[in-house]
Amino acid sequence: MRICSLLPSATEIVFALGLGDRLVAVTHECDFPEAARGLPVVTRSIMPHRDGASREIHTHIARALHAGSSIYALDEATLERLDPDLILTQELCEVCAVSSREVRKAAGRLAGRPTILSLEPTSLGGVLETIERVGGAAGVDERARAVVAGLRSRIERVAAAARAAAARPRVFALEWLDPPFSAGHWVPEMVRLAGGVEGLGREARPSTVVGWDEVAHWDPEIIVLMPCGMSLDRTLAELPRVSLPDAWRRLAAVQAGHLYAVDGAAYFNRPGPRVVDGLEILAEILHPELFPRPARGGWQRLPAS
Predict the structure, then answer these.
(1) What is the CA radius of gyration of the chain?
(2) Residue 131 counted as domain residue
(3) Which pLDDT band, with edges at 50, 70 and 90, does 188 fall under?
(4) Are 72 and 44 in contact (CB under 8 A)?
(5) Residue 295 confidence (pLDDT)
(6) For residues 56 and 68, what is the distance between their CA atoms, to the nearest angstrom?
(7) Do 114 and 232 fall into the same domain?
(8) What's residue 55's pLDDT?
(9) Is residue 144 in some structural domain?
């Protein structure tokens, strides 16, 4: 079987299932594991401000989506040459990948008429289900069940330990910096399982813009910065470029020095196996007394200033 992954999360799933040797094409954003970086790339970004400030990126994306335009391009010639049997894509988020309409149109012109598997998880359970679906489509059902069992066991260990916490802090998981977006889909669920309460994001629902007055009213005790698509280093570089309101310094989390940045791109934004690492990272941040920090890294405590 020849697999084309049009999602970084799907690429990670394929490798987790031991099918890396069957991948013939990936996206320009597929950077994990390292072996994915050397594979043929069939997408590119056509957004002119990828390295711009958060507000600039948001404005461009909003305009493109309003106009019905895509922010990615598909290399149909390369896709045709590679002729995959299975294409992994999604229809959940137009900002996250090449549009499903464009994928299906291109696939219809391929000689082999590949199977298209669309993955749209909105919860941790949904993420695990997508792993099983990819395994089923690739003929490795038993292997997929074993991978899912291991991930589910880790999730259950975190949830069980977090139930012993003396308190559940108010949390604000910030999925974009300017304008501020609350985290959605699986992230509020991750906060809950890690022993916190996310009052601005909603489980299994998309992320949304929130006003700073809403943030002030919630007055989070812990703030976790996880901008979509940004690494930890990129987040640290981006934060000084954001104009924060005066109310920011009065938030309980900032006053107490409970402000953290994480590698959102690796552990929170992609619905793949590493969201379980993200859950463990959240548990370490929310309840260090219960979850000693391992050497893995992936997050950093920030100075209140």
Answers:
(1) 20
(2) no
(3) very high
(4) yes
(5) 59
(6) 19
(7) no
(8) 83
(9) no
DSSP character for 269? Answer: S
Nearest CA to 241 out of 73, 70, 72, 55 is that of 55
In a shared domain, residues 109 and 207: no
Geometric angle at alpha carbon 215, from 214 and 221, rounded to 5°: 145
> Could you tell me if residue 132 is inside a domain?
no
Same domain, 292 and 221: yes
- pLDDT one-digit tens code per residue, 75-92: 999 999 999 999 999 876
Residue pair 253/223 in contact by the 8 Å Cβ criterion? yes
Q: How many domains does the chain have?
A: 2
- Per-residue pLDDT tens over the stretch 212-228: 999 999 999 999 999 99
Does 291 lie in the same domain as 181? yes
Reported in sequence order, the residue ranges of 139-212 that DSSP labels E, i.e. its strands, are: 170-176, 181-182, 197-198, 208-209
Q: What are phi and psi of 205, to 5 degrees?
A: -120, 155
* Residue 159, pLDDT score: 98
Q: Contact at 8 Å (CB) between 132 and 144?
A: yes
Burial of 108 (0-12, 13-18, 19+ CB in 10 A): exposed
Check whether 33 has a pLDDT greater than 70. Answer: yes
More confident residue, 53 or 238: 238
Distance CA 242, CA 53 (A): 8
The answer to whether residues 176 and 298 belong to one domain is yes
Q: Are residues 281 and 219 in the same domain?
A: yes
Higher pLDDT, 59 or 37: 37
Range of the domain at 99: 3-120
Q: What is the CATH number of the domain that holds 223?
A: 3.40.50.1980
Rounded Cα–Cα distance for residues 208 and 225 (Å): 15
Q: Which residues contact 106 (CB under 8 A, 6 or more apart)?
A: 74, 76, 79, 80
Strand 208-209 to 115-118 pairing: unpaired
Q: Give the per-residue pLDDT at 60.
A: 74
Q: Report which of 78, 85, 75 is spatially closest to residue 111, judged by C-alpha positions.
A: 85
